[in-house]
Amino acid sequence: MSATQNNKVAIVTGAARGIGAAIAQRLAADGFIVVVNYAGSAQAAEVVVQDIERAGGTAIAAQANVSDAAAVARMFDATEAAYGGVDVLVNNAGIMKLANLADSDDALFDSQIAINLKGTFNTLREAARRLRSGGRIVNLSSSVVGLYQPTYAVYAATKAGVEAMTHVLTRELRGRNITVNTVAPGPTATSLFLDGKPQDVIDRLAKLAPLERLGQPEDIAAAVSVLAGPDGAWINGQTIRVNGGII
Length: 247
Ligand code: NAP
Prior knowledge:
It is a single chain. It contains 9 helices and 7 strands, in the order E-H-E-H-E-H-E-H-E-H-H-E-H-H-H-E. Helix 4 links the parallel strand 4 and strand 5. Helix 1 packs parallel to helix 2, helix 1 packs across helix 9 and helix 4 packs parallel to helix 6. The model has no long low-confidence stretch (mean pLDDT 97). The site of NADP nicotinamide-adenine-dinucleotide phosphate has 31 residues, from helix 1, strand 2, helix 4 and helix 7.
């Protein structure tokens, strides 16, 4: 059931599936008009939009590869044209490619830099230029930034860069009444985490947190909801690890 509409507009990147879909659903239930960004999953994005509308919310699907600066600018243009402005940006789109550094090829490095780091830069740049007063930006990092696990060097480096941009942008937006924060999930049950892992590895990683389970996309969406909503107004420039206590 959708809450009363708050007339605020949220763009969620990579919102067709996984954590992004849960964030889109949650923000719609909180009363936001939601732009469901996707890169390739057009059908899944349409399903998220339909689910939101069926629950009484307002949403639209928007195709844009976040690593393409012009496509990102067009998505912001289209959002402003449809709804009059943008209030919330959630930088959720991301990929993870794991290998020991010695075995990592250029494609592994370049693709993660392009989507996780440049993609976040592209959307942050548009948001910094356009977000209305009272706006909120939430970036997705990862708890692996603090875990130093083998095979995560490049992925963790892109997310460390996202955290650094969060802190700098917070200061650059002084006087605009816009908060910028990062949510850093631990292992969360989506295809990004589950695909290609044997069940015994999944079970072992699920037990690492003192709460002894994997995160669910809704656990992460709940934290984003606080940061995007009225209760998050005084939280600014923080990286919040949402991971059951894994670190
Ligand atoms: P997921 O299930 O693999 O979903 C990834 C999403 O990112 C998809 O919706 C995908 O869209 C989108 N995406 C990928 N490349 C894109 C691009 N170039 N432009 C626009 N969208 C793009 O992953 P997830 O687990 O939900 O991850 C969401 C975020 O949480 C990521 O930033 C990830 O690094 C972070 N995270 C995840 C975990 C975890 O354990 N799952 C832990 C820590 C952090 P299409 O399907 O349309 O291509």
